[in-house]
User: What shape does this take?
Amino acid sequence: MNIIENVYDIVIIGAGTAGLSAAIYGVRAGKRVLVLEEKAYGGQIINTPEVENYPGIAKISGFEFATNLYNQAKGLGATVKFERAVEIKSQEAATTGIKAVDDGTLTELTTVTGKVNVVITESGEYICKSVIIATGAKNRPLGVDREKELIGVGISYCATCDGMFFRGKDVAVVGGGNTALEDAHFLSNYCNKVYVIHRRDQFRGESRLVDRIKSKSNVELVLSSKVVKLLGTDSIEGIVVENTIDGKSSQIACQGVFVAIGQMPDNERFKNVVSLDQYGYIVAGEDCKTSCEGIYAAGDCRTKTVRQLTTAAADGAVAAIAACE
Assistant: This one.
């Protein structure tokens, strides 16, 4: 009998709401669960100052919500390692008898037969029967010249993280969804002036959020417009916006630009084992099953129409139950 370390029943890639919810369901089903996270637990929700749309919780900060979820998963017995998963390989098991090792302590004998998945990280490899990909999505950039160069000196993707640096200054928020509207409201409490720039003539976000920013005297809506140029040498001094209807350009003086135009997945590293759609999302239905047996996708990284906190948690539960089977 070969002794192989780092063997788990389920390996979850991503410690956001979907991944941690999956971990909770997995360990409660008696499975050995490993969660791999390349940065910090919590995902995008950790930067949200107030969560008011999660059933059963009237109001909570995103950080507190994520921390509670993380502590719950850890408390139930999930192992969390901060490593970036770079690849998944599916192969036939090389042995049927495997001694599982966790944090240097030998646990019960685990039998693995048939096909297994190997999750490769920058630090090592982990063998498991099932993988749940819950990598979420990352902020979509504006796509204009010098954007990357000006990150941290005027360009930001997190109003709650960086908003206080712009107290008393003029800023622009780019986007038309809930995140952009929430960012604009948050910034209006600290900044002198907040311009909200959206490429369409109507917002995609909730009507109550639209009404809330319209009631703020220091918020100005710049609709049917897109940012085409960033002004300033060492930091942001303004932007050039172009009207999407008549093509006319105008300048807006500001010291900060908060980009909230949606998200994009980070799934290219898994395209060798699962199918991706044209936008890079993992093709998976409400059952969270991918094109590869034993590999599931949960949360914002998969194809779906609604990407919310509740649907991420639901995906985590569905994927974990399927993985346990």
Summary: The radius of gyration is 22 Å.
